[in-house]
Protein 1
Amino acid sequence: MGRLVIDGENVYELDEECLREKRKENEKKEKNLSGEESSKK
């Protein structure tokens, strides 16, 4: 089950599995970018 976020009159449900996948993708991208930058030096 996801988390509920209440923003005034709006209610959102966060899909935690989707958030985990996006975090993993972002971490991979950051590692690739940092690896490319260090190889350029």
Note: The CA atoms of residues 24 and 33 lie 14 Å apart.
Protein 2
Amino acid sequence: MKTVILTYCKDNIEAHRIQDVLGEQGILSILQNENIASVIPCPAFEIPIIVNEEDLEKAREILRDLFPEKIVDEDPINFI
């Protein structure tokens, strides 16, 4: 199963909020670098939210509706 980065978050609170909403809609997601971002708060260590490629469009719709400031480039970044 192929995964892609949906968006990036500045901190754990924001990342978990988005992850919870995605989960409520049946979309599984992974937070990467979560611990590093909490220790070193800088843009280089933002938390990527990773979703399955087949859930990407539904996840983007959720972001557009509830977290429009978190929309990133429409070209997904593949993550293996």
Note: The mean pLDDT is 85.
Protein 3
Amino acid sequence: MFRKSVWVWLFFLIFTAVNQGCSGGSSTSDPTGSGDGDDDGWSTQLVKSGNFANGEINLSVDADCNLYVSAYELNTGLYCVTNKSGSWVSTLIIDDEDNSAGFQNDITVDPDGKVHIVYSSLDGQAYATDEAGNWSSQEIWVGGTGSCSIVSDSGGNLHSVFDESDNWDIRYSYKPAGETWGTKVTIADEWVNSDCDIDIDSSDNPHVAFNFAGHYNLRYACLSGSWNVSTIEGVDDYPYVPDTGWTPAIAVNKTTDAVNIVFWNSTANSVQFSNGAVNSAVTLKEVAGWARPCIALDSEGYAHVFFGESGTNIINYSTNKTGSWVNTVLPINIHGNELAVKIDSADKIHLIYSKYSDPNLYHASLQL
């Protein structure tokens, strides 16, 4: 999830250059269409043609291993793309309308297979769903917003976190299944331009990772009766160095409740992993420039981390499945740093990305 206010869009441009409920105004693309070729066990395919290099790409998977993608197309808007029907089907959910609607977004699928998307625009935070059979949207928060994230729990209740830029807060909102969004709770009074991500544990408690941008550190929050917030990397006091906790992503083991956080450490020029404990981070790889890692857990709880590198246009794949961290470079080029990963119930990795050679959406998969 990403930055806030107008300079956010400029920042991103500088650094970068499935349910049939996705209904109405749809188009399809061949799931066997051209990709990067199959290599090292990875199978790739075209998802959707378009200009997807300058906005967020996110991914969810349902109980039947169908994929659902939320992706922003430059000057067009926010799409939901799914392969539930057997072919990739896309629906334009929100028009851009010159307010960058959907530039920052996230997607989740509830236990009933209904799709839920949160997204930001220059006008605030909003929510879209196909829960009633057709797509509808509503405002969650009016005012400046940036990074946003959403997850469904085992009961179909929705948990969302977002960067509320007008008051410089990280806020959490909860939507019981079939009801409306509730009070927006301030998790932390941060500063500016924070990234945030959310997941749930085995008891459906939310866990949030975010960077406290004004202090350049990484923070972790969990809700168990009340919110507990801690700085896990970096410092809280001036001069606020090192610059550690950018672009975090979080995944919580639904069996053991083990916390897995990946992030970019700017000072160390590296992508790092934390288990949520203070100063627990280990380096996965030193990188050539800014990175936005994503993470998913397999059925055994091992972590699978993917990230691009500015300036090299490669996808790194780090995993601790062998008992220690191993990093490899995939035979796939990427445009910028936007990619998303999920692992389905059959332990198949799914990666959505935009290629370096063109800004279309692509899917790569690997059976573990």
Note: Confidence is low (pLDDT under 50) at residues 1-39.
Protein 4
Amino acid sequence: MRDPEHAWSRRLTRVAHEPKRAAKWAKWFVAKQATTLGHELFVDGDREFASTAFVVGSARSGTTWVAEVLSAASDTRFIMEPFDERCSQFRGGMPDATYLAPDAQNERLGFFADKVFSGQLRSKWTDQYNHAHHPVRRVVKDVRTVALLGWLNARYPEMPVIYVLRHPFATAWSMASLGWGAHGDLLRPHGRLDHLEPHERTLVLRQAFLAEVTRWCVEQSRGLRHLTPATNVVYYESIVEHPSEAFSSMATYLSGRSRAWSGWQPDPTTFAKPSATSVRRAAPSDATQWVESWQGELAPDAVSEALTIVEEFGLSDLYDLGPTPKIAAGDLWMRSAP
């Protein structure tokens, strides 16, 4: 038989704690709404594609960092990875290696892309880092449409595009070590297997790394296939080593391509700030720590196999075992397509 006195005691205790619970919930709710309004309460009335700067590159190439520097001003809207499956308005997302020739027709993709680059798209995912309430220009950042670069350039010839390239081994190692790409369900701390033995983790990391190098090659071989001088190609390594020069060059490119970007200048105080997707909570002491982050982490035979993959895709004229690119970014559009 239940003790009625004990039951009443529990009820009174619950009632006594209700004000604290209510206050805690109210605080959470207000903070959540303030955050949501801070990102999603804006008026973006400019529908010109030329007002959008499109920052594109493979995952872990520094695209978020570049986009955040470009959108640091209070009058610049930041649209985050609209082709991600987490953007609820594009169910299913975009397959990473989807390719369309410049003259190809795709009504569904075209309709969605028009909404994105004209600023009509709104969602919690894409506007999560936006802080502009009355934007006069936009930055769209994406890592899933490198293979569509030729098609996008043909559809939006007036839109300035900044294509970020980074060493395939650096991007692949970052993806693999974070458990974000191939075999991520095994490599993440709370993956499907609770624990990997050290030798098992080494084997899985190797396969994940090689898979990510292959993905990088597939994306870049298609992204470079229809490259034109109208696209501003920038190397991550060059930005890290000479940020002021690199971002000033981007400013010149953007102002020359778009009236909305005329007069825009980067804020030097934003160069060393880690991006929202960075795994570093502080900037490295020197550029070498960023550029050569993969070296010394991989077995020599894995590096050799990865280099063979790059060579077989015809991309070894861009990068080899050295940490920096081999060909000037401005000359990439003249190279023979792989």
Note: The chain has one domain: 41-334.
